[in-house]
């Protein structure tokens, strides 16, 4: 029986969603194609029907991770920038948000600089989109850049520090 016309699209989407989560959690070097395909419950051979290489997958998964993180972080943010900022800063701390896709801009910040130019350009586009989204909350470009840098840095640090009390103080200090 032949596959329906949407099968290939659905398969690629499933792979990208699994890869996005794994890459954000572990970084490029710690994730193999086999890991992604196992998570997607698919064979390694299916990978090559959709992607040229692991770097190609990483590049595309970065965009998917950003969109999924945005869905997670903006859920219930009808009160403007303050609620968006709160959710963003709490994404790795709040148990209700922790298991959802976290922001690749923050969690892959040190991983990206070691990647090829195409991946770095994609990361930059995602960052610019994040800044534009913050601007859409009523901030100037300069304010949005400052807030983006503060929020991204705070989340990156919060995932690296072991002192939970210090993490809590950091995240509170970074709220507007």
TrEMBL record:
InterPro entries listed in its UniProt record: Homeodomain-like_sf (IPR009057), HTH_TetR (IPR001647), Tet_transcr_reg_TetR-rel_C_sf (IPR036271)
Q: Which UniProt keywords apply?
A: DNA-binding, Transcription, Transcription regulation
Does the keyword field hold Transcription regulation? yes
DNA-binding region located at which positions?
32-51
Taxonomic path: Bacteria, Pseudomonadati, Pseudomonadota, Gammaproteobacteria, Alteromonadales
What GO molecular function terms would the record report? DNA binding
Q: What is this protein called?
A: Transcriptional regulator
A Pfam family cross-referenced in the UniProt record is TetR_N
- Domain (HTH tetR-type) spans 9-69
Matches recorded under PANTHER family: TRANSCRIPTIONAL REGULATORY PROTEIN (PTHR47506:SF7)
């Amino acid at each position: 029986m032949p596959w329906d016309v949407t099968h290939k699209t659905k398969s690629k989407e499933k792979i990208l969603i699994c890869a996005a989560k794994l890459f954000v959690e572990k970084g490029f070097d710690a994730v193999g194609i086999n890991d992604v395909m196992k998570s997607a419950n698919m064979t390694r051979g299916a990978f090559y029907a959709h992607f040229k290489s692991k770097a190609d997958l990483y590049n595309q998964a970065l965009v998917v991770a950003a969109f999924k993180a945005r869905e997670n972080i903006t859920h219930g943010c009808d009160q403007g920038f303050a609620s968006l900022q709160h959710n963003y800063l709490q994404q790795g701390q709040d148990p209700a948000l922790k298991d959802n896709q976290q922001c690749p801009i923050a969690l892959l910040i040190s991983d990206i600089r070691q990647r090829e130019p195409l991946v770095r350009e994609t990361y930059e586009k995602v960052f610019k989109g994040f800044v534009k989204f913050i601007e859409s909350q009523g901030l100037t470009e300069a304010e949005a850049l400052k807030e983006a840098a503060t929020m991204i840095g705070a989340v990156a640090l919060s995932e690296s520090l072991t002192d939970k009390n210090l993490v809590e103080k950091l995240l509170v200090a970074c709220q507007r």
